[in-house]
Amino acid sequence: MASEGSTYGDIHRYEPPRESTAAAVGIVLLTVIQVGLVGLFTYGMIAGWASGIGTVLTVRLIEANMFMGGVLTAIFIDLAFIMLLYRKEFLPDVMIVKKRRRKWEDLYIRQEDVDGTTMADGDKFAETFKRAVYPYYKK
Question: Which residue ranges run through the membrane (predicted)?
């Protein structure tokens, strides 16, 4: 579904998601792995693996901290793969028309006010204050 218009908000391209069964099974398996890793990390924190409880040597404490850090890393990497699969397979690819802005328009001010204005312009103070507080102020 593509539109011919070039006004703001028109859809240029719309590609529906693939919604493959293999991706759904992959997300379910990665979620099971995720739950297991979170359970292992939680058990390690409760058991005191990284706090030095029950360890005699400093080497064991360092190894325990490295192990807990590795489990935490695996948790986030697994979560990243879950989100990657979901985004790729289950979200549509949509391109819409956006308004191109110049650098000075990013500040939502008029072009002649790029260098700035003073706040104490007498009777213009209220108008200047409204523009400063509410940048989308209607002209």
Answer: 21-46, 66-86
Phi-psi domain of 131 (left: phi exceeds 0; alpha: psi -120 through 50; beta: other)? alpha
Q: How far is CA 43 from the centre of its chain?
A: 29
Q: How many residues can be counted in the chain? A: 139
Per-residue pLDDT reduced to its tens digit, 52-110: 655 555 566 777 888 899 999 999 999 999 999 999 999 888 877 766 666 555 555 56
Cα separation of 34 and 41, whole Å? Answer: 11
Nearest partner of 97 among 5, 35, 1, judged by Cα: 5
User: How far is Cα 136 from Cα 98, in angstroms, rounded to an integer?
Assistant: 17
What does pTM read for this prediction? Answer: 0.58
